[in-house]
Amino acid sequence: MTIELLTYRALGDRLSVSPEAARSLARRRRLPRSRSADGKALVSVDLAEIRHAPQPPGSRRVDKIAVLAAQVEALEARLEANAAAHRADFERERERADRLMNELREASAATRAATEAMAWLEREVTALRTAGRTVGDGPAGRRVGHLAATLVEADRKAAARG
Hints:
This protein is mainly α. The chain is built from four helices and three strands. It has a three-stranded antiparallel sheet, with helices on one face.
């Protein structure tokens, strides 16, 4: 158990790693550090205790790239699946909106027709009231009969639609 004071460069040379890797190893293992007279960092280390097998250069990076590429592919697949689901929802809602618009147009047309019929009926009733004649076989009687026939016809049309 021999403790040596080594710089990061010397520790890296002994372990066959770069000085940056030696510095990282010293930090991870919390090895005691001090400064030399020339200002360089010295690490107190027992090389017998350190069993460090250096990784081949770049192998960890290649592994990380492969893992990240697989994660990106998985995320892209999920994104495409979500987009397809949202597109289906959008299409379904668009069809629903189109159906509702058609129903609204039909209801609007029916409302316009009913409004026109109501205005015509009001004109007829007003004309009958102002005529001042008694209802019988005369023109006022024919007008009332025509009005009743129109009301029955309109009622039948409304019942057929509803």
